[in-house]
Design a protein that fits this description.
Length: about 160
Amino acid sequence: MYIVIDKIRLDEVSRAHLFQEVRCMKLVQHPNVVRLYEVIDTQTKLYLILELADGGDMYDYIMKHEKGLDESAAKRYFRQIVHAISFCHRLHVVHRDLKPENVVFFEKLGMVKLTDFGFSNKFCPGQKLETSCGSLAYSAPEILLGDSYDAPAVALYPRYNL
């Protein structure tokens, strides 16, 4: 899959966010993260060549299956998502937009992968982030209140022991 971004239409802040996303995606190479294969940067366009998911996203799956997933499959997929997030955090990368739309199925491989690092950022352990971002409906209370927040703690809120 490829994404073409017209850099001419981006202001400086948007351009900085875009290159932050690319830096984070290049850094996070994990079996449960959609792989960024290539970045082609021209004067006017940025081309991102990404791994192609063959099964849609988690949100679509939820909407199509009223009865949901059987428990063993749900556990397997949830474990994969948490492994991806944990790996990101070990590299001091926080995704900041975890939601069903950003988890995609690779049906032939029997797995899910995390995608869309558009709000991702690097963090320093022990230092709080200030930026309010992500999807409102999925935001942690700290972000909604405009408080500074510990990036890994907010990303895994509430915490689950797998």
